[in-house]
Amino acid sequence: MGKAGRRGNGEGSVYQRASDGRYCASYRDLEGKRRVLYCPPKRNTRAEARRLLSNAVKDLQMGVDTSGALQPFAQFLAEWLEVVKRERAPDTWRNYDQMCRVHILPALGRKRLAQVLPQDVDRMLRHAAQGGAADNTLRLIKATIRAALGRAVKLSLVPYNAASRADTPRGATYEHVALTREQAITLLGVCEEHPMGLLFILALLLGLRRGELLRLQWQHLDLTTGALEVQGTKSATSRRTLQVPESLLPRLRAHQLAQLQRRFDPTWSDEGYLFPGRGGKQLGDSSIERLWGQVREAAGLTKEVRLHDLRKTFATLQFDSGQSMEVVSRLLGHSGTAVTERVYVEVLQKRQAQALEDLSQYLGLKGA
């Protein structure tokens, strides 16, 4: 070790390493452990080492330990996601993991934790918005990085939460599409021929959310009665029991049998999902989007029709067939009819207009 330059009051020291000439700063963290900071090659000077030490000491005096802040942000996110996976609901972990993989890591993964600034988060969110991310997606991206950095603040790794100081831009707007009866019939016909078409048939006929589809397991389905326990993803009321149409039960039994035969495959891990992904694991978001793209194209639908639009189609066709607001709300797993009215306000307005038109025709009212 090279000659050290001592600082008073236990504030650490700076020295030049004899092996390679690198200037270093050494100090004790909040737990009394020795920490060493290294000057970058382009700023390898004693003055730079003193600056690093001075900043570290100031942070310690404020109760912030920056030793962990020098780790790669990607490493911190990976460790944080492991904590989320252990302590939070599966859907929460899956959403956070997806936002990290798709948006946060590509933009900020190469930075160190301490280098993530509000302007970096701003830039990442703007880039996502320009790429077509909707408002909900932007909010989820920001919520994810805010939760991660919130843990860093709690652990005294950084002095503040950079995501909390960032602005959320306006996202791309998407008009929800409800398929016509003819389009729905065509889609069902295409699904009959697709290996994973049964997944989309259930999405359309039961109005399930994406997360609910991905979490369906055989233990939730009674193949004798057709009762399906939906593991809701939004609230307690989203957990509900739906009745699978009797015509689908033979297909579901055949689907289960095909899965049972795959148990002899050494690469298969049976985790009980109705619609598993590769190796029997839970089907991922990217996989279900790829499958939906195949079915959508074969049915002659445009790219503007999203998987979630099958849920709107379900609700719209239920209303068109005369089902009450309360029944449709329960089928959708909403917390109350007020939610259903707010989400499907356009559908209801059209129904109201049609009701008035029907009355005028019923009474024989003629135009001028």
Q: Compute the number of helices.
A: 14
Cα-based radius of gyration, to the nearest Å: 28 Å
Strand order of the largest sheet: 1-2-3-4
Compressed to H and E, one letter per element, the order equals EEEEHHHHHHHHEEHHHHHH
Label the structural class: alpha+beta
Overall residue-averaged pLDDT value: 85
Report helical residue fraction.
Answer: 40-55%
Shape descriptor reads: elongated
Largest sheet: number of strands, sense, barrel closure: 4 strands, antiparallel
Description:
The chain has 368 residues and is of the alpha+beta class. Helices cover 50% and strands 7% of the residues. It has 14 helices and 6 strands. The protein has helices at 46-61, 73-87, 90-108, 118-130, 135-154, 181-193, 197-206, 210-215, 249-261, 285-298, 309-320, 325-332, 337-343, 345-362; strands at 4-6, 13-16, 23-28, 34-38, 227-230, 240-243. A 4-stranded antiparallel sheet has the order 1-2-3-4, covered by helices on one side. A two-stranded antiparallel sheet has the order 5-6. Strand 3 and strand 4 form a beta hairpin. The radius of gyration is 28 Å and the shape is elongated. 28% of the residues are buried.
